[in-house]
């Protein structure tokens, strides 16, 4: 059964569209189970009805014609219960619904299993059998459940592909196709998508037609000629070093490049109006699918050769093509995996949004996007990238959501958000030089998180009082080697000078987890619980010492440096780090530099540190909570994983209780405590943190004016009462709603961005 399942998944993965995928499923499952009927019903999001989309055994004319309400019939029962239903005599069941156009009156045994993807019921997979035959046994039920689970993602992807093309399951025009990912950089963007894909990757070649068949044929034939010459050249060079059977491999490649082989089929596809790269992709994937399904091991291996040949041809087709991309005035850049180089190709002022299948909110591109103020969504695992080129997209960087083919209503809804944001930012400029102080005179320091000089410019214009977190890994990430002491010194000096005499808190190198250096790869099964942060730099003191030395020398004459240690979980890590810092301090002084010993603090982002606050505070000058990591460690949720991202919630009662405890314990021993995480940049979260007693809030520069405006408009007493109220609640969603309601009642409803539910309500209203 495993080999059948593997073959089925491969076939369905290679299907050109949803209908072909469904036809493959019903045909192969019927054959594998030896049953008389296999059918797929999909739930149409537009009508909330199950539609018969494919069948093997029922009358074909019923496909697309038969539909059931959400809870109607046995199919509706399977979907609503979200579990298999196995019946020996289906017509006798009270929920049985008979459709004469299907011809199913001949079949009595019924087995239906739900198709579920990311908690959403996509449809129901059904097999049926005549009365005289056996009932479906447990093994068959288990097989069908396994098939359903394996194919759910493929069906979701295919369904999305069709929807993006502008058609619903019923063939009607589709609008407001949405995909959920991870917020990368806040804001809303409306623009035209430009898909950028890595060179020679057939899987991500976009599907698009061509208006110039002759030019595409010419390009393809030139690529075939170039690849043939490459292979002949290599074969000739290696002829003396290879045995005849090894030399024959090159002959196989050359035969596949014959006019009556692969090139001929690609040319036929181009003549049908498909651009050369898309035609090549379709033919190569079809060849690969056929070879991989063969029983002969030698022939299975030929699939690798076909794939390699396809990549070679694609590489020649793509030469120079990326340089000729046309970027519209409002470009939304889309890719399997965005890189900083891709961002740099877009003309200045034309990049309005970013969308990436891979990556996280901590990736280099996300950090760059926040610095540039470009709304970004990452981690869109189900998005069919190759269908998006040239489409109008709405990028919601607040919620981590994108909409394709937006309706006029949804577009105007999001345009209003863009306009409000612009107006709000202009209105808050007057607060730039005013202190962040409540109406009853409680003062909070407003700091920023930075990594690049572009962050600094925005921070100063928004009235930041210093840097609460300078991510020193950013200069390391933009190089192809470790930066020298002098290079680091120059980076650090820029930051220190820009904010002098205000404090600049520099976090020592924090790599590992989802932050990797190409020249210092860390391969681990569980990177977030592995070698990262202080663990790496203490194991490599040569890196740590050079970095601290560069920091200290950069601070000469300014003396506004503070050093912060990441991922501390043991007192011994603090003591070892302090020993190295003091050693460097004395060495730099001996070299003649007039510097002061900087304050040293630790980041509280591991649950173990929450219970050692007093012991840590005895050894350092300050503490700073990294609320992003602390939240994900407390909740055991990787916030960059779209499958569980909805479980990551900064307002979780456990997170709030931990934050209260940290502030109380730090102040009990007389040490200041700040916070540098997403919660500090959220107006409601900032109010709760201020009420808890946090001395400083550090956030992205864009969030600073809103947070300052809210804090200056309320009393600390009011915020403390709000905190006491929410600490009695046991649901993060209820807590968030309670805080939002308090903000609205205080006149700050305009600071609260509409959530997914609001956007989807607008979308559904537009559809209906």
TrEMBL record:
<dbReference type="InterPro" id="IPR015813">
    <property type="entry name" value="Pyrv/PenolPyrv_kinase-like_dom"/>
</dbReference>
<dbReference type="InterPro" id="IPR008731">
    <property type="entry name" value="PTS_EIN"/>
</dbReference>
<keyword id="KW-0813">Transport</keyword>
<feature type="domain" description="GAF">
    <location>
        <begin position="17"/>
        <end position="165"/>
    </location>
</feature>
<keyword id="KW-0598">Phosphotransferase system</keyword>
<keyword id="KW-0963">Cytoplasm</keyword>
<keyword id="KW-0460">Magnesium</keyword>
<dbReference type="InterPro" id="IPR029016">
    <property type="entry name" value="GAF-like_dom_sf"/>
</dbReference>
<protein>
    <recommendedName>
        <fullName>phosphoenolpyruvate--protein phosphotransferase</fullName>
        <ecNumber>2.7.3.9</ecNumber>
    </recommendedName>
</protein>
<dbReference type="Pfam" id="PF00391">
    <property type="entry name" value="PEP-utilizers"/>
</dbReference>
<dbReference type="InterPro" id="IPR008279">
    <property type="entry name" value="PEP-util_enz_mobile_dom"/>
</dbReference>
<dbReference type="Pfam" id="PF01590">
    <property type="entry name" value="GAF"/>
</dbReference>
<dbReference type="InterPro" id="IPR040442">
    <property type="entry name" value="Pyrv_kinase-like_dom_sf"/>
</dbReference>
<dbReference type="GO" id="GO:0008965">
    <property type="term" value="F:phosphoenolpyruvate-protein phosphotransferase activity"/>
</dbReference>
<keyword id="KW-0418">Kinase</keyword>
<dbReference type="InterPro" id="IPR036637">
    <property type="entry name" value="Phosphohistidine_dom_sf"/>
</dbReference>
<dbReference type="InterPro" id="IPR050499">
    <property type="entry name" value="PEP-utilizing_PTS_enzyme"/>
</dbReference>
<dbReference type="InterPro" id="IPR006318">
    <property type="entry name" value="PTS_EI-like"/>
</dbReference>
<keyword id="KW-0808">Transferase</keyword>
<keyword id="KW-0479">Metal-binding</keyword>
<dbReference type="Pfam" id="PF05524">
    <property type="entry name" value="PEP-utilisers_N"/>
</dbReference>
<dbReference type="InterPro" id="IPR003018">
    <property type="entry name" value="GAF"/>
</dbReference>
<comment type="similarity">
    <text>Belongs to the PEP-utilizing enzyme family.</text>
</comment>
<dbReference type="InterPro" id="IPR023151">
    <property type="entry name" value="PEP_util_CS"/>
</dbReference>
<dbReference type="GO" id="GO:0009401">
    <property type="term" value="P:phosphoenolpyruvate-dependent sugar phosphotransferase system"/>
</dbReference>
<dbReference type="GO" id="GO:0016301">
    <property type="term" value="F:kinase activity"/>
</dbReference>
<dbReference type="Pfam" id="PF02896">
    <property type="entry name" value="PEP-utilizers_C"/>
</dbReference>
<dbReference type="InterPro" id="IPR036618">
    <property type="entry name" value="PtsI_HPr-bd_sf"/>
</dbReference>
<dbReference type="InterPro" id="IPR000121">
    <property type="entry name" value="PEP_util_C"/>
</dbReference>
<dbReference type="GO" id="GO:0005737">
    <property type="term" value="C:cytoplasm"/>
</dbReference>
<dbReference type="GO" id="GO:0046872">
    <property type="term" value="F:metal ion binding"/>
</dbReference>
<keyword id="KW-0762">Sugar transport</keyword>
